[in-house]
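Sample entry (437 residues):
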Amino acid sequence: MIVPSIDILGGRAVQLRGGRHPVLEVGNPEALAEKLSRAGEIAVVDLDAALGKGSNTEIIRRIIAKHPCRVGGGIRSKELALEYLDLGARAVMIGTKASPEFLADFPAERLIAALDTNKEKIMVEGWTKETGADLFARIEELKPYVGGFLVTTIDREGEMNGFDFERAEAIVKAASGRRVTFAGGASGGKEGAAQIARLDALGADVQAGTALATGALSLARAFSAPLSSDRPDGLWPTTVCDEGGRLLGLVYSDLESLDAAFESGRGVYKSRSRGLWKKGETSGNRQDLIRADLDCDRDCIRFTVRQNGKGFCHLGRRNCFDNGFGIEKLSRTVEARFKEAPEGSYTRRLFSDEGLLASKLREEADELAKASGAAEAAFEAADLIYFSLVKAQTEGAGLRDIEAELERRSYKVQRRPGNAKPGYEDAEGGNRWTGIH
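Predicted structure, serialized as tokens:
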């Protein structure tokens, strides 16, 4: 699988090329992250911090807030590692400070040990200092403390001259169950795609920057490299889901449609009868592509999209099976009523009378707290969810924003105790509410 890489130096996206070529200027890192993240999780590396010459922390914070990413480069304090993890980074890549003592305080599944090698010797501090440590010895030492390894071959970095597969297979075997990502050497074109597919079959990923930045390897070709199809036409089944993972329908993709989707940031597919199909071009029910993912068997794609207009289905429904369900369906009703509720209606009163809405929220929260039994708890929770969605809508937030916040919280490492605020304790001194954060 491909992991697109963004190296940041002096606030700009660049690519280092093995120390033998000038730095390759790539552009605005945030704009680049917007595009590359359409192919899934990206890697973001702070070169200034790695070299001890400053940092690009503010840029990285903004990227973490918007896109699934792993973050590395100069993370040499536990405070910074925790900050990135709590902000929602899927993992932090630790290089210079990677030691059992440093790593032991973090959840292993959120750690990637970055092992930068030059002629098989481990380099640290932005490739400027040789440690003399052996690569395989370091893997053996660190693997109880991490969920994966990033192995960069410095002498191949930016050269686009491929990977040493015998060495790669030995590294994957040594990592024994920890996912290995290889950087340095990704080639262009069909050859580069074949290398990605071969490493994916070994259970490893490819972190690529230069090949993608120069256009030698397209994002679509890199993403689709591990895919297979048993269809006579070679098309890849593609499930389309909304931001919450709810299925909208089934379509098909090929390399041409993937390339168009990644370049435009739109839902673009391959129609079996009409060729390239840009969803919403005639109906107005346009889709914004958030990201694409491969399934575990590498024979299906998932597109996560923001669906606009009436919905995905040509019958004017939310999806190809029905018109939605539960909280998502309710949220669309609330949004429509916010725009269309007639004057004098109760709904309009809720949207326009802050005091009334605040009172209803307190009332429903109190009734849920006092509920007894599953049926009553579900009934009162449904009431509270409705008024919560109304409140969020009046402030400009929808269900997608609430779900995004919940997703962000799921990656927090540091937890608050969840004690009730003053004034919310019960009469016996306990807590009426306990926060789930």
